[in-house]
């Protein structure tokens, strides 16, 4: 980003800085909350079928940009990722406990942060 003369920030830099400060102050739950508010407001203003229309429009644009096989390719990639996660969870479930005590079971959960998903494997003793 190009800086303005006099040491001022560009609009993009100021927005990025403001977004980072809001994120640090209120956390990711804040964005989830305002996103839900915006979505329900849009649904009440334009109707729920509005989301279907804009989804189709976006899908056509993506198909035009990346080709008709794009969704098939990303679907296969996502399916493979899920299969790998299931395999990983099963391996954790059958593994010996790393600490003394009873056997353990594993749980894999998806943590949604922005656009990416992070996987956490949780271990806890069986009751």
Keywords:
127 residues; alpha+beta; 2 domains; 61% helix
Short description:
The chain has 127 residues and is an alpha+beta fold. The chain is 61% helix and 16% strand.
Explain the overall architecture.
With 127 residues, this protein is of the alpha+beta class. The chain has two domains: 1-68, no CATH class; 76-127, no CATH class. The protein has four helices and two strands; from the N terminus they run ααααββ. The protein has a two-stranded antiparallel ribbon with strand order 1-2. It is extended and about 60 Å long. The relative contact order is 0.06.
Please state roughly what percent of the residues sit in beta strands, choosing from under 5%, 5-15%, 15-25%, 25-35%, 35-45% or over 45%. Answer: 15-25%
Q: In percent, how helical is the residue content? A: 55-70%
**Unreliable segments (pLDDT under 50, ≥5 consecutive)?**
102-106
Which structural class is indicated by helix and strand composition?
A: alpha+beta
Total beta strands: 2
Distance between the termini: 56 Å
Shape: extended
**SSE string, helices as H and strands as E:** HHHHEE
Q: What count of structural domains?
A: 2
Largest sheet: 2 strands, antiparallel
Average residue pLDDT: 80
Determine the number of helices (DSSP H or I, runs of at least 4 residues).
4
Radius of gyration: 22 Å
Spatial arrangement of strands, main beta sheet: 1-2
Question: Quaternary status of these chains?
Answer: single chain
